[in-house]
Predict the 3D structure of the following.
Amino acid sequence: MKQVFLRKDEKLLWKGRPSNDRKFCKADYFLIPTFALMLAVICVIFVFAVRRSKLDATLIPFLLADALMALLCLYGLIFRFLRKNYIKKRCRYYITTERVIVVRKGRLRDLHIGDAARVARVTEKNRRGIGTIYLNQRWTLSNLYDNTGLDFDFLYGDGTQRRWGLPLRVEPLAFFDVSHCEDVLKTLKQAGTHFYKA
């Protein structure tokens, strides 16, 4: 766990961590059925191919590719939740008089409180008051996979980098799955009013 040190004259206003009461996000409503359907189709193709070919040697590359796709679907159905839980247990959030701090995936990232307060808003709040607060950008469709276990580091860059011909987006700075998210947002906005006019 990264150690968080406050600067001179900086005071801690709030600290928290992701809530364990929220297991699923909105993206899971289509990711789970999609991965389940893909896995079912892959298994049917696998069984059909094996029965038709009687394990012909020319079919081995196809079967290996099919098995790899099945493993990816299993990750999407089951193992990504284990990864998400692992990340959540090691994640901490802080609001100080000068900045917001996120310790996630073994990295400490911070942002000036005025910049965060200007952009911050709650997304994906459920009935129990658990929600996500994006701090460095507005939520867009590209944020759909954030906090799902599918948000791998190699998908992010500085906004100008490209991979496979596609631009890499900046990794979002956010408080994911925070309890009483409206109160946390209010604390953040109040701390940020010293630096900007709301």
The chain has a mean pLDDT of 84. The first strand starts at residue 12 and ends at 16. Residues 60-89 form the longest helix (30 residues). The helical segments are 28-53, 60-89, 113-119, 181-192.
